[in-house]
Amino acid sequence: MSQTRDITIAWSDELRTGDEVVDTQHQRLIELFNRLAAARVNQICAETAASILDELLDYSGYHFRHEAGQMRKWCIDEEHQRTHLAAHQSFITFLQRTSALLEDCLADGIENLVLFLSQWLLHHIMGMDMQMTREIRRRQTDIAVTGAAQQEHAARDQMNHVVSDLYNKVGERTFELHALNMQLTREIDARRLSEDALLKVDQLLHGLIQAGDLLLTSHDEQSARQIMCEQVMNADLFLTCCILQPSVSGQTTLLAFAGSSQVAELCRTLAEGGTEHHSIQQAWNEGSMLCVNEAKWIADPSPCMETFTRAGMRSWAAIPIDRDGVPSSMLMVASTQPDCFDTKVALLMMQASSLLKRACAQIELKRTLAEERQQQGHLARHDVLTGLPNRLGLREHVPIALARAHRHRTALALGVIDLDDFKPVNDTWGHAAGDRLLEEFARRLQSLLREPDLIARLGGDEFVVVLEDLDEREAPQQLTKTLQRLHQAVETPFELAPGVMTSIGMSMGLAIFPQNGTDADGLMRQADVALYQSKANKLDRANWWAREATALTSLQDIAPLSMLDPYGPVAIDLLQKVRETIELVANDFVPALYESLEDTPQARIVLESLAPAERQALNIRQAEHLRFLLDESTSQEQILQRASHLGKVHALVNVKSSLLIQTSTLYRSLLVNQLVRTTLRASERHQLQWLIYARMEDDIKA
Known about the structure:
alpha+beta, five-stranded antiparallel β-sheet, 12 strands
């Protein structure tokens, strides 16, 4: 039923017309109308409501006749009389039509009619009847009407006429809509039985739709089966829904069910009933749906029929669920309806089977993809040859280890290891022999580490160890013992082939958190520098490792590399390898440079004197000059020639050499930071650092 609205009319002074007889009649009309409204709300029987409506109809006729007599008696304007009497006739007609409809529609349908009649009655009393009584009183007192009053009365009469006409049209439309509503109601009633069946099918359909959404989040086949059973049971169609798995031995497993467990167990019994229910076995073998209604039971009785009937089963269906074309399980549903499985229900159950089949296949695919992703993730982070973490694995591990050390207030050591004399192994016995050596070295070194420590292979014969849980004050002493133990990895000769043995050594550069750095890149740079120092002093060093807390700052720090020609073939080859890195640093250098120069008074004066266009041009020329210095095709003579020209320009604008040295130092620092992230060997990175310093020193000196 629609929400009840208060449509009764309360008598008040605003409704008084001044004519006691008319007001008394109005009160009686409102009383009868309110009784009709109350009958609608309280759903009083049709006979009582019809009686009230007849009484209202009779009294309305009596009241309207009285008003008509008064208007004739006092010679009320004919136009007003016609409008007024027409309104009376419309109301009587509306009441008669309402009375004719009341028997068919006592409750909801009558509500709009009663509401309309209440509004009509209020308009008539407060509009036309008020005007009529005012006109009668004026004539009784013989008060002359002025021209302005006549115009006002005419306008009011016209307004009442328009509103009355509007109410007539609204009333006609209300009754038309009510008639259409009644026709629709009859059609709905005529289809109610079929709609009940459709509703259940619709519930089943919605259950399957919801099952599809839920199956998308299912992580295993068992939960998918249970979801399907529960969603099928959302429709008021079945006693139970279950998933069965027959076997070759004849035993049937109940994989999932919802609804009656007793009926689910009976379905399991039905599935393994042997010759009594050979049709199920046929459905299983052929992979086709089987529906059994009560009529079939009666025509071909089964020993189990009485048991099933006592449990409430009147019909059941079995739908095989295949995997790769072979049945793997059976979806069974049992119903209390003797003919439940019509075409629509059977089709939906086949769709349920298909949906579950696809869900299980999707779960299997997700599991396969997850395993593949896990394997690919492992391969992406581990070296194929040794199985150790690679550069990416190390890059992900070190920040976590540093955060752990910071949280626990412990020290951490990062060491870069490079094998001594490994190249002759490859040159003499081949890369396969070298690979066997690297595998064995990795295995030995890993066996000598503690559980929280890590060893990674960066490439070639370059490895990195990360040693955690060191005491900040005792770290040097702890490391001495640990590193002496790690050296055992090369103290036993390596077997390259049957009867072929070789010995190698190793060097390591060491950096300690937090003394030598607080981030992974900083520690790698420090360890890289220390490794170079260890290898440079390989013949007369006290230990196989070295620890250095300061980075290289001048050519003297790497003097042993002075034999390398910064413009020769080796230098050209190295610069070609890092061309993209040099380009990246050249683009980042200019904004970093000017940010650092803001604190230098001399530089700030020069920069502030430049117009925006001039400063932009200077930026471009500065980046281009850096690319020129480190281009593999640039010769020393070209650098000296350009530097001489730039030196004269700098002298003219009073740019001091200290500012140029500051610029060069910043660029070298940015470039070295980027070189640590490349895949170059440690020795190649040291050679690059040296040739960069050499070329830039030529530029500054000239």
